Amino acid sequence: MLQVTDLAKYYNGQPVFSGFDLHLPAGRFQVLLGPSGCGKTTLFNTLTGVTFKDAGAITWQGEAVPHLGNLCAYMHQKDLLLPWFSLMDNALLPARTRGGDMAAAQDRAGQLFFRLGLGGYESHRPDQVSGGMRQRCALVRTLMFDRDLILLDEPLSALDAITRQRHQHLLLLLQTEFGKTILMITHDVDEALLLADDIFLLTPMPMTLFRRFSPALPKPRAFDDPKLLHTKAEILDHLEKGGVS
Amino acid sequence: MNRAGFSAAALVCLLLGIWEGAVRIWEIPVFILPPPSQIGWTAIVKAPLILPHAAVTGAEICLGVLLALATAVPLAVAMFAKPMLEKALSPFLVASQAIPVFALAPLLVIWLGYGIASKVFMAWIIIFFPITVSLLQGLKSCDPEYRTLFTLMGSPFFKTLALLYWPWALPQFFAGLRVGVSVATIGAVIGEWVGAQQGLGFLMIQSNARLQTPLVFAAILWLAAMGLFLWGLVGMLEKQIITWKS
């Protein structure tokens, strides 16, 4: 369980966010929904310790921690695969940097390749496969971190619309099959509705959570579920108002 | 041969033709300017004389390159790892380039003698800088998002260096190495001019004093060929190692 209290980050004296609170129970899929440039990536960088927080407390599993850098796995909209390594070597990076039983890691990665439809492509280089396959390889790498908490930073926004739809259900596997706790940021309303247990709408500069939606629908969900469409209309309505005020 | 290669070859032939023609029409004495045909002929028939000298100069250059690699790579990595070190050392690096090698050559001969050591050191001074600077730039050009990924994986510096920074910097490292090997001849030859008993620079000075101008040009031709060969060798090595598209 992740608890963020009173987190603040200033940039040139201006708060990107301050007094930011978040409560993420174990096993839950939460989505922060907001326009580009509202400080979502700064929030993730602050949570992971890439930049220092200016105030606030982060608690993970009941223990206060300085940041989540060595507790979470991170997936970015860029696949961040290394072009000089095969897909398999890329997926094994977390195991290689950590050290330890490489044979076991290779077995595990092999199974994940198969599960995510990458079987047979283990020795391909990233430039030899499609963007969707690269992002799936990044997903395998994310799972190979072996961490319970996963931060997703617009993980599918670099993919074209058709490929993105096919990959949304794979993100859902992180929760349903691998039991991860997930915090995702996105500006894609449909993606949020399909995947999230809780959706938080964000206001920009300073960033605050101003409205929460918790669509209590079983997953996988359908785009055209009337309840979902109803929530969508509500969210779009709020986003519009939020933009005006 | 492709079009660009063909036009380059045609241009070279044209210039050599003008040279050859001018020397013959105005009957320029051979000791002032020999025609290219005679230079080429001398380079071939005098090969038994030139080769041992070329071997010495080649050895000086190669040792200089190896010495430069052995020092430039650790220094660039250290400066990359500790930005304080970079700030402290970069003025000295730049200053070292502001001193002409010509000015150092006589001193180096005093310190290191007439043998191969002073020439290797000269070559080292010249090659060291482009390799260090380009490798450092290459390491620093690494995308911060990749760094973040490795930070979150908890990767220690030397693992990140081996898996991420070093391969990332390789193209720029090779660019620096190519510049290095092609200017390395300058260092070696200047060292030989100042004081030596063998080497292409020594041969040039000797032949120059005896007005054996064709031999001077032949030595220059061999020197240029060696530079081109090293350039090509580094290019081949680069193609073998960098097999990915960035």
Keywords:
heterodimer, A: 245 residues, alpha/beta, Rossmann fold, 2 domains, four-stranded antiparallel sheet, 8 helices, 36% helix, B: 246 residues, mainly alpha, MetI-like fold, 10 helices, 84% helix
Structure notes:
The complex is a heterodimer of chains A (245) and B (246). Chain A contains eight helices and ten strands. Chain A is of the alpha/beta class and 245 residues long. Chain A has two domains: 2-71 and 150-244, P-loop containing nucleotide triphosphate hydrolases (Rossmann fold), CATH 3.40.50; 80-146, no CATH class. In chain A, the strands form two sheets. Chain A has a six-stranded mixed β-sheet, with helices on both faces. In chain A, strands 2-1-4-5 form a four-stranded antiparallel β-sheet, with helices on one face. In chain A, helix 6 (161-176) links the parallel strand 7 (149-153) and strand 8. In chain A, helix 4 (102-115) packs across helix 5 (131-144), helix 5 packs parallel to helix 6 and helix 7 (189-195) crosses helix 8 (226-244). The longest helix of chain A has 19 residues, at 226-244. In chain A, 36% of the residues are buried. The model of chain A has no long low-confidence stretch (mean pLDDT 87). Chain B is mainly alpha-helical and 246 residues long. Chain B folds into two domains: 1-31; 34-241, MetI-like (MetI-like fold, Orthogonal Bundle), CATH 1.10.3720. Chain B contains ten helices and no strands. The longest helix of chain B has 38 residues, at 157-194. The mean pLDDT of chain B is 91. The interface between A and B is medium-sized, with 23 and 20 residues.
